[in-house]
């Protein structure tokens, strides 16, 4: 049966993790449908257009329309749940800036959220100063989370002074004391929020930041003490918001159910104690189904947006009705679920380290060293179908061969034959055991070494920090050729000089395999081969570091427009870092670097090592080099 795009869709799970935004077209290309309304863009067209405009790979691509669509969907999910439940309060989201602080992202979200009263959340002084300036409408919330010093609280109160609803969410008792003192000093009536520590623990990768050992939030003892202090200061009626947040990417809806009910109980009890709280803020945690499995594994979530909204609305309503208190305005701080989908990275493969790069038409001479002839015999064992025996013999003779080489008894030609035969034999053994459970650990390890490495022109540390630090999975697929069967199992190596600069765990098929140790890829030809890494909009954009001085990537922002012939255009281009910029960021003075090279060139000229003309050219090239992109320039013709 011929390979079709349906096969590719199944293999890469595009329609599962793609959530309707990403698909494969009839030409085998990945497309994006930012508003899920039929208007589709081929990613490869974006790359071609960006290249025409002078941008380079790796390329960071953002779809501004997806951001708008996410805002709409989250708000509509809550509106629908509220309507269906007959809930008497409202929903009002806030965007936690830390998830992606890029100006265009924040501005697009704030614009798209205007109709829904989307507010903003800051977790540090720099974020607060940013939020104060961007937040313009008095009814939208501006929440301050995170540890705060007096200066932080002063800035927040300053916001209240100019008519903003800035809520200082106390993370610990000292902040309540600071708030009491400073609001008196500045003559401002504050909006006070209180973050509580829930006993419910999250699951998933952020589980340790939840429960009673969490770093943020007031314990029940502190909460009561805070109430006393506020009452004495006459500020009890300023307590406006109750907040909890048990962690990001909560994969299991049951955790959310428990948190919401526990949190709502706190709310109800506080209201009954006379606190006029009008907002219950359920924090972040709304998961993104990165692997498309709809399960409770860490890179997934076993619930839909609709189920999430229902769980929260019904959960709060139940408890409030039971306790006979008013239905509060529901606030959520979804960051990941708002921004993850809108951004992706296109990277180019510039090489492949093939393990099965064996010697063609191998003839082992009669007088070859004994160990080589022994391994040749193992090949006969495997050909005769004795796989276990062949494996054990292979391990033994291979080790022997390597020891002989170390001691100087084996020449390079013989070692090449040993390597070549070993891979051939292993490949056959692994084909035999494919999918069968009966593989020993040792065998698995050796077979794992059989996978080809694809060299991709990007840095994991810069562009996918959570893959490296937390083992989080991100969906990846070739961007073209999906109507062609991929034949190679590959892992991915980046261009940093770090053995951690790799990706060797990938999303599975969402059915019987949670994850795979390889990605199916196509053989490289003389054309560029692009791989897309998707759903990178949350946290990845700004957490990355400068390992090996790889800087920011070139960036293209795509906007749908039916007036354009293509239906879309590149709205903005942001050039990535130049070599000069990453050096300057590390405190190097460029003039000094140039001066030093100049001195060295002059000395070389003086010693007649280079001609003056040549020397001047070297200097000019060095200076021009400082303006270059930090990543590789790939020449795919070399692969022929
Ligand atoms: C990080 C954070 C969020 C965002 O969480 P997501 O899971 O990305 O939605 C929300 N609230 C607080 C307090 C946070 O620290």
Automatic annotation (TrEMBL):
Residue positions of the active site: 497
Signal peptide: none
Pfam families for this protein: Arg_decarb_HB (PF17810), Arg_decarbox_C (PF17944), Orn_Arg_deC_N (PF02784)
Keyword 4Fe-4S: no
InterPro entries in the cross-refs: Ala_racemase/Decarboxylase_C (IPR009006), Arg_decarb_HB (IPR040634), Arg_decarbox_C (IPR041128), Arg_decrbxlase (IPR002985), De-COase2_CS (IPR022657), De-COase2_N (IPR022644), De-COase2_pyr-phos_BS (IPR022653), Orn/DAP/Arg_de-COase (IPR000183)
Gene3D superfamilies the record matches: 1.10.287.3440, 1.20.58.930, Alanine racemase, Lyase, Ornithine Decarboxylase, Chain A, domain 1
Protein family per UniProt: Belongs to the Orn/Lys/Arg decarboxylase class-II family. SpeA subfamily.
Residue ranges of every copy of the Orn/DAP/Arg decarboxylase 2 N-terminal domain listed in the record: 73-340
E.C. number(s) listed in UniProt: 4.1.1.19
Modified residues (N6-(pyridoxal phosphate)lysine): 98
MF terms in GO: arginine decarboxylase activity; metal ion binding
Arginine decarboxylase helical bundle domain residues: 366-446
Arginine decarboxylase C-terminal helical domain residues: 579-632
PROSITE patterns named in the record: ODR_DC_2_1, ODR_DC_2_2
Alphabetically ordered keywords of this record: Decarboxylase, Lyase, Magnesium, Metal-binding, Polyamine biosynthesis, Pyridoxal phosphate, Spermidine biosynthesis
GO process terms (BP): L-arginine catabolic process; putrescine biosynthetic process from arginine; spermidine biosynthetic process
UniProt KW Metal-binding keyword: yes
Protein name: Arginine decarboxylase
Co-factor requirement: pyridoxal 5'-phosphate; Mg(2+)
Function: Catalyzes the biosynthesis of agmatine from arginine.
NCBIfam families tied to this protein: PRK05354.1, speA
